[in-house]
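Structure ticket #2291
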Amino acid sequence: MRGFILTNAYPNGEKFIRQAQRIADELRGLGAEVDVLKNGEVYAYVNAKGEVGVETKKAYDFAVYLDKDKYLGRALERAGIRLFNPAAAVEICDDKLTTYFALQDKGLPLIESIPAPLCYTQGAIPDEKFLGKIATRLGFPLVVKESYGSCGIGVHLVHGIEELTEIGKKLLHRPHFYQRFLSKAAGRDIRVIVIGGKAVAAMARIAQKGEFRSNIELGGRGEKILLTPQQQAVAEGAAKALGLDYCGVDLLETENGVVVCEVNSNAFFDGLEAATGVNVAALYAKHILSNMT
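Resolution: structure written out below.
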């Protein structure tokens, strides 16, 4: 069995390489032949006949897709390579609001969210009437999120209309949306790793003082927790609804149980492994090979 781990062509930090290497090592330990490749070392093309193809170093059976390039992912699948995760699932999870729309009819608890109008006109200014409607409906504080981003980057807590207008100007030409702020969940969330439809480990992430985002990359710390039946069901339901082999589901706690905050198809597992002692890379490797035999 031969596969490769695909990373972004321009990895932003050692954690990206470390994640890929950990999965590769576990796969090799189970007898698979595995390469770690960057996007660009593997590339897709459409020829003059309209045929889609890919160029790879070798013939591969599967790929662990740690990139978010929707074009290459779909080309690899057309070439007969099994992707973990599937290209469509990665594409959905890359856009936070598209993720929400994909989950909206699956019986899962979500956060009230409103997309911002897209702007393609240079020199335009945010629509004050629209921002006023957002403020009236969601109240302050409220959360503004860029649709694309990870590790808490592009997530803003806004306390008033002037601040909302300034954020609106900053993000006017970027896809973004607005969410109701859940005060009970401020500075804390639950990260659940789901593999093969089963929650295998979970931690509470607690933000550092003065920070409402609990991401480990922003200084948060992780604590091992045991999931309640509702928490487990929501996390597993989100993964199943999106067709993911592997993901990190982020849950926020409310007075009525948890809601889905985000679903990350390429969730980092260093922090969770340290907090829980669970070898996530090994579990993922076993899932991959069991689905290739």
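Closing remark: The longest helix spans residues 14-29.
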